[in-house]
Amino acid sequence: NVDALTSFSNYCRALGLFLSPALQEQIAASEFLTKIAAITNSQLFWSEGKVKLVPYGDQAATGNGATYTPPATGIPLTDDDFLDQGSDNAPVEVTRKPIADAWNHVRVEFRDRTADYNSDIEEAKDQANIELYGLRSSELLSFPEICSRAVARTVAQLILQRALYVRNTYKFRLGWRYVLL
Prior knowledge:
By secondary structure, the protein is an alpha+beta fold. The protein has 4 helices and 10 strands.
């Protein structure tokens, strides 16, 4: 879908998420695309017979000659649209990951173009969260597709924010008229 790729491209350009992937060994296309989605704070999914890559970004951004405007998506659902889940008759089940399980320190390994492509590490921390709950570091995330410290810093910050502030999971059932969702 060209429109979806245009939106994804505008998102990456506006946030300065420039990558230099050098595939030096054979890997599955799904593995490569999943990594690109992780680096660019996006979701990869199959819909309408196509693979789609959609940014999680929900705020407009402008930069590097591009403007990203998040799509006005969403289906207006009412209580009548949800089917019961089970014995407690709650139409929507919400699961929240404990704050103790959320990272507040993320480290990204990248290939620094300004240092002859030697490996370096950029990090992002949430100091207020560290002071409240203690340091909880993610494993070292290796992204050799990144060749700029500024990009590595942005990626680390996006991953950190998603880990800390997007902790809910929603489970629900809808009727057949929403089968294409």
